[in-house]
Specification:
Oligomer: single chain
Strand content: under 5%
Number of helices: 17
Largest sheet: none
Structural class: mainly alpha
Length: 391
């Protein structure tokens, strides 16, 4: 029964990944349909992420009142509403209406499942969990590519909603697997609040690092397809859309590999190796080759390097800050992550519109550097205050 529950949790993370990559892969086509500048994708992404921040911050209280299983069910249902709403959209402004359920459905389930796994399972399970997020994020751009080839962009959102409906039905059928966890409820009652957690040593530095990570990740989510459309010649619409999944394929690969080695080398070393690989991928993307294959390999490598960073930071929360603070810290980390996802794609959208999409590798380099610097500073502060340093 325990293995079946883990499988359901993994399936829930596939559902979390499915909506995240659709806007970036569809935007080159949606932009022309709605007759808006390319940077306007950032405003839609900002609206989705803002709602996700709200639900992530509410995560600890929701876990205490409703338990993880019901948060999962309701959250998937909200994303289905958002996806179907996008599929019927005929005007740009309508996207903002359906961005509300689209975003609300992501934050609380992300925070609650990360908290549940961080406190009950190993680093390997956490990495495999986020690997399945990457699987969902790879599936949807390819559904969008099929829709662009055989139908319209609207169908890409609709087909993804149908997949979500199937996952929702499985999660509903699996409700008996989720036993009422009295220990978890007691832990939540004894947990620190948001304000108290912010004062814990190293928390603020970790939040800045998380913001920096997601600033780079979100840029890849939203602008990878546009990067190929703007810098590489002779690519079809469906190929450009499909290449939006490169970063997600890399994330999935990086987390799959990390799942096999994380328990041996530790979360911190895993992050260091991952960011080094990310730098190598950015360099390959930036090299001035004529064809699109080197850049495609570069984005895949960037995603592979990014892969272990997010789950490792989440999994370290109980060890770094203690179980008393872990739920609030994970909620804050989620909010910080989505804060980066909210504002920075728009900032990059303005930047690339003024300078050119070719600047994307330089942008990614800056935030990868900030990510590792602030994480290392956080480790030092935690160590000085008596925290363990497993690295």
């Amino acid at each position: 029964m325990a293995l079946l529950l883990i499988a359901v949790i993994y399936l829930a993370f596939i559902s979390l990944g499915l909506p995240d990559s659709l806007l970036g892969s569809a935007w080159p086509t949606m932009q022309t349909v709605f007759h808006v500048p390319s940077s306007y994708a950032g405003y839609v992404s900002m609206a989705i992420s803002f709602m996700t921040i709200i639900s992530a911050l509410a995560g600890p209280k929701l876990i205490e009142k409703f338990s993880t299983k019901w948060i999962v069910i309701v959250s998937i249902f909200l994303t289905i509403i958002g996806l179907l709403g996008f599929s019927f959209t005929t005007r740009y402004w309508m996207l903002f209406l359906f961005a509300v359920p689209y975003g609300l459905g992501a934050g609380s389930v992300d925070a609650s499942l990360n908290h549940y796994v961080a406190n009950h399972y190993s680093s390997a399970v956490m990495n495999f969990l986020h690997c399945f997020y990457g699987l969902g994020a790879v599936i949807s751009p390819n559904l969008m590519a099929m829709a662009l080839k055989y139908a319209r962009w609207n169908e890409g959102y609709r087909w993804t909603a149908y997949v979500q409906i199937g996952i929702l039905l499985v999660c509903i059928l699996s409700l008996p697997l989720w036993k009422n966890n009295e220990k978890e409820a007691q832990e939540m009652e004894e947990s620190a609040g948001i304000a108290e957690a912010l004062k814990a040593p190293g928390v603020m530095l970790t939040l800045i690092a998380f913001f920096s990570y997601c600033a780079g990740e979100a840029a890849c989510f939203l602008w990878t397809s546009s990067y190929f459309a703007g810098t590489k010649q002779g690519m079809s619409e469906e190929l450009v859309a499909a290449f939006g999944s490169l970063i997600f394929g890399g994330l999935m690969l990086g987390r799959l590999i990390s799942g096999f080695v994380s328990n041996r080398i530790g979360d911190r070393m895993l992050i260091r190796i991952g960011i080094a690989i990310e730098f190598a991928g950015i360099l390959l993307t930036a090299l001035p080759f004529q064809g699109y294959i080197p850049a495609a390999v570069g984005f895949l490598t960037v995603g592979t390097g990014m892969g272990p960073v997010y789950p490792a930071i989440q999994h370290m929360a109980p060890d770094n800050f203690g179980k008393k603070y872990s739920a609030a810290v994970i909620g804050l980390q989620m909010a910080s992550a989505y804060l980066g996802s909210t504002f920075m794609p728009t900032v990059f959208g303005r930047l690339q519109q003024a300078i050119g999409i070719w600047i994307m590798p330089l942008y990614l380099t800056l935030f990868a550097f900030l990510n590792i610097v602030f994480l290392e500073l956080a480790y030092q502060k935690i160590r000085r205050k008596g925290g363990e340093d497993p690295a």
